[in-house]
Amino acid sequence: MPHPTTTPSTPAARPASAASVGEVVDVLRGHRLTVLTGAGVSTDSGIPDYRGPDSPPRTPMTFQQFVGDEAFRRHYWARNHVGWRHVHRTLPNAGHRALAALEGRGVVHGLITQNVDLLHEAAGSRHVIDLHGRYDRVVCLRCGTVVPRSALAERLEALNPGFVERVREVADVEIAPDADAVVEQTADFRVQACWADDPDGLPGACGGMLKPDIVYFGENVPRERVERAYAMVDAADALLVAGSSLTVQSGLRFVRHAAQAGKPVVVVNRGATRGDRYATLTLDAGTSETLTDLVELLPSP
Q1: In which element (H, E) is residue 242 found?
Q2: For residues 250 and 268, what is the distance between their CA atoms, to the nearest angstrom?
Q3: What residue numbers bound the domain in which 125 lies?
Q4: Which of 81, 96, 120, 132 is labelled catalytic?
Q5: Do 112 and 15 fall into the same domain?
Q6: Are residues 68 and 180 both part of a single domain?
Q7: Which of 71, 180, 227, 256 is deepest in the core (most CB within 10 A)?
Q8: pLDDT value for 80
Q9: Helix (H, G, I), strand (E, B), or coil: what is residue 171?
Q10: Which pLDDT does position 8 carry in this prediction?
């Protein structure tokens, strides 16, 4: 899965006494919140979590593999060509809708998501930072042109007619949370190069390498995006983490930042996280039901 460089470690065990929703409300009452979300928020929409308690082991493709190995790149685009269709059809769940409702009431100041599925925006959240990018865009690594993923889908379909149907016939697909899918038979898949005008003014198309507008393992989140996220944390009174194991440093740093500033930090997740040691409270629970409860129980600040 595309994500920034990180060295995963085993999360520390959670405190023996887990918090209740009532205790979460007591900590967050009267505060304007910044919310940090991870893959656990989208599992109820049918997008599996990479690191949840029941998730199978996965080996994500790195940025270095993508740009340096044609076979890796071909394999990625083949499986993405299938998986993209699944994410494109997913709908926001109760957790997404609850966060949008909390924003509408002024409880949530802004939202930082590690997901690339755009379900927060689809649910109606307006102040969203897509920390790791978004699945619906593709960028050329040569000329920088950004195009809709739907436009690339049309070209890939023309280059590989019937590929999706053949894959479905052998049930050789596993949907993954980055608009991806596991597909074994990819050797004959044809990859589309950038078709924008040549950036050097030469006749013909650019022909550069296309990449999803998503942060891969081995890449850094753009600095401007990180600074906006820090500013969003600073502008709120407390930080709520929902559905993230905080395994990657790109999300954990905001938890550390809020804790160092003396802001309350509440973590709602199934299973322990790397950020538990910085949290004021941790709640081992699903996000959809917990966030829905907060809509009912948290008053506007």
Answers
A1: strand 238-242
A2: 18
A3: 1-47+92-132+220-301
A4: 132
A5: yes
A6: yes
A7: 180
A8: 87
A9: coil
A10: 42
In sequence order, the β-bridge partners of residue 267 are 241, 282
Tell me, what CATH number does 156's domain have? 3.30.1600
Q: What is the per-residue pLDDT across 108-127, written as a single tens digit (0 to 9) for each?
A: 999 999 999 999 999 999 99
Domain annotation covers residue 182: yes
- Clarify whether 257 is annotated catalytic: no
Q: Hey, what amino acid is at 117?
A: D
Fill in the amino acid letter for 216: Y
How confident is the model over 219-224, as a mean pLDDT? Answer: 94
pLDDT score of 86: 75
Q: Is 224 exposed, middle or buried (0-12, 13-18, 19+ CB in 10 A)?
A: exposed
Task: Please say which residue of 184, 214, 244 terminates a domain.
Answer: 214
Residue 240: strand pairing partners: 35, 266
List Cβ neighbours of 30 (8 Å cut-off, separation of 6 or more): 237, 299, 301
How many CB atoms lie under 10 A from the CB of residue 259? 17
Work out the pLDDT band at 228, boundaries 50, 70, 90.
Answer: very high
Q: From CA 274, how far away is CA 153, in angstroms rounded?
A: 37
Of 150 and 60, more confident: 150
Tally of domains in the chain: 2
Q: Go through the chain and tell me how many residues it has.
A: 301
